[in-house]
Design a protein that fits this description.
Number of helices: 3
Structural class: alpha+beta
Helix content: 10-25%
Distance between the termini: 45 Å
Shape: globular
Number of domains: 1
Largest sheet: 5 strands, antiparallel
Oligomer: single chain
Low-confidence stretches: 4-15, 156-164
Strand content: 25-35%
Length: about 160
């Protein structure tokens, strides 16, 4: 097991008090690789389909991007990028801007979560396993070198922009 996997395996089996999904996400940011950095800006946007968050992800190194939405109130998280529409998540330029054609942060009628976690990994991850780990066990397991960023989404403090 890699150090990060050991840490999160330990967090996942903590008998006294289970850490929340948000605490685990924050822990992932804390153990990011020293030579990798990820930045994340979140803003609201108004699209023809309604209000959606905009995500601008910047990385100092190319890699594979993964975006998770976390709802602290329900203690739940879910992988939202890549998805079945956008399965190619390689960041050749080190930048990612969402939304883009066909991508939705949340299924229609489902509220957008209050935190966004982004990881950029040096090697591809098993998307299905990542999604299941977060949804079923509330853990984030990233293999190999990675960097992560976590931020709260507070659309009431931001001005929306139009996206076609």
């Amino acid at each position: 097991m890699l150090p990060a996997e050991r840490l999160f395996a330990a967090l996942g089996s903590c008998a006294i008090s289970q850490p929340t999904v948000l605490q685990r996400a924050d822990g992932l940011v804390a153990i990011s690789a020293a030579d990798m950095r990820v930045g994340l800006n979140v803003g609201p946007a108004v699209t023809p389909q309604g209000f959606v968050p905009t995500l601008d992800v910047m990385s100092n190194r190319p890699g594979f991007a993964y975006v998770f939405l976390i709802d602290a109130a329900s203690n739940r998280g879910r992988l939202v990028y890549p998805d079945s529409v956008h399965s190619k998540n390689w960041l050749d330029t080190g930048e990612l801007h969402l939304p883009r054609g066909g991508w939705r942060a949340a299924p229609k009628g489902e509220p957008v979560s209050d935190h966004v976690l982004v990881t950029v990994a040096a090697k591809p991850q098993d998307r299905v396993q990542l999604a299941n780990d977060v949804a079923q066990r509330g853990v984030f397991v990233v293999h190999g070198d990675f960097a992560a960023a976590l931020t709260a989404t507070e659309p009431r403090n931001l001005l929306p922009r139009q996206i076609q």
